Amino acid sequence: MTFGSSFLYAKKIFFSKSKSYEGSNGKRSLLGSLLCIGLCLVPLVAVLVVSEGMISGITGRIVHLSTQDLSVYVDSSSDFASSEEEFVSFAKSFESVSGVTGSYPQIQGTALASGSSYRTGATVRAVPRDIFTKNEGFASLFNVVDGEANLSEKNCAVIGEKIAELLNVRPGDTIRLISVKSSGKRTFVPKVNTVKVTGVVSSGYQELDALWIFIPLDEGFSSMAGTDAEFTVGLTTNVTFSPGLKNVEFEVQRHLISLNNSNSISGAWVSTWEELNRSQFENFSSTRILLLLIMLLIVLVSSVNISSALVMIVMERRKEIAILKSTGASSGGITLSFLLVGFACGAGGTLLGLPLGLFVSVNINGIIRFIENVINAFTRFSFMLTTGSASNFEGVHLLDPGYYLQEIPITIPLRELFIIVVGTLALSVVVSIIPAIKAGKEKPLDTLRKM
């Protein structure tokens, strides 16, 4: 029995138009298995795409808005941080290092931010005045909610959306930044700096930018000097997520050694974004793997239905199999036919589920907004019925901006999708092996005697 003969018989089983098999339980089960695989692939593909987009979006924001690709930490007592001119000159020297595309000095510390009626802790970041236009990450990932991201004025500040809500301030309002300056042993003097808010920004991920306050570097150098502020130089590259970042790190370390005119680095050290955020990204990866594992188990359960359907088809077509074998069909050829039927069922489910899953994934932001609007419409109506007014009603957010991105970036992981397709097809063949072998072992004489 040739492969072509096996293929034609498999085609006959899968697309049978014979009246004797109309309403066949086996065929209905086979189509049901195809549908189950397709429906299970939809959430699997959606989870894969959404988790990939969410993780890459959060990762990109942490890297490009917080640590940069490489962070050079400078000891506050070092000569490199002795004055603003020295610190800026030190940062600019990295622009000549091979692989470095940008260098951004920064002073970061904590302070108590005070508005007209509320106070809260804040992370104050003193950055170059042109960072919101010069730094590609700041320019593309920060969304200006109110005012403008402008640090060109004197005693100005750009603040995060969440802290603006807490302090109840808008562009044009002033806030006080209260920090603590050390003045000798066990002596601490409060230092107050009043700044004017010029803009409110958001990265779409509140856990990252909730308490950020940006002030100009020159003003931060004077207002944060003597505090426990951290001096860093953020370096950008073109190899953020590739192994080449280690090579750039090595070049930066060599540059630091040359600045010290010695064989060792003192007063400054360099770290990659992966080293600084290792635990967080391992948590992201493990969560993603767990979600995909659960979805894969659902696909596995659906694939088992193919085996059950093939068992029923074998029982229904015992007479056909007996006639084929009595006319020269081999056991291997019959087995191959049923394996091809299982493969076709998996392929059909894949062709159904993959496009639907991609459609859901690409439109996930709109789908989430639609579900939120429906839920909020019903809850708002219920709230009005119970309280008589909807003035204090707060809408439901399926993606809490305190923990998730407000807008999910869509990233199609082609390699992972290819693995899912191949895995589904292979799984469909594997679960078909036992009933296919049983079909090939059917004894035609025993069957024909019972006819």
User: What is the N-to-C order of secondary-structure elements (H for helix, E for strand)?
Assistant: HHEHEEHHEEHEEHEHEHEHHHHHHHH
| Helical amount | 40-55%
> What does the main sheet amount to?
6 strands, mixed, barrel
Report the count of strand segments: 10
Apparent shape: elongated
Distance between the termini: 24 Å
CA-based gyration radius: 32 Å
What would you say this structure looks like, in words?
This protein is α+β, with helices and mostly antiparallel strands. The protein is 55% helix and 18% strand. It is built from 17 helices and 10 strands. Strands 2-3-8-5-7-6 form a 6-stranded mixed β-barrel. Helix 1 packs across helix 13, helix 2 packs antiparallel against helix 11 and helix 13 runs antiparallel to helix 15. The longest helix is centred in the N-terminal third of the chain and has 43 residues. The protein is elongated, with a radius of gyration of 32 Å. The protein starts with a helix and ends with a helix. The model has no long low-confidence stretch (mean pLDDT 84).
Q: How does the SSE layout of this entry go?
A:
Elements: H1 3-14, H2 25-67, E1 70-74, H3 84-92, E2 100-114, E3 119-127, H4 131-134, H5 136-141, E4 143-147, E5 156-160, H6 161-167, E6 174-182, E7 188-202, H7 206-209, E8 212-216, H8 217-223, E9 230-237, H9 244-260, E10 268-272, H10 273-276, H11 278-316, H12 318-326, H13 331-362, H14 364-387, H15 414-430, H16 433-440, H17 444-449
Summarize the structure.
The protein has 451 residues and is an alpha+beta fold.
Attribute tags:
6-stranded mixed β-barrel, 451 residues, 55% helix, 18% strand, 10 strands, alpha+beta
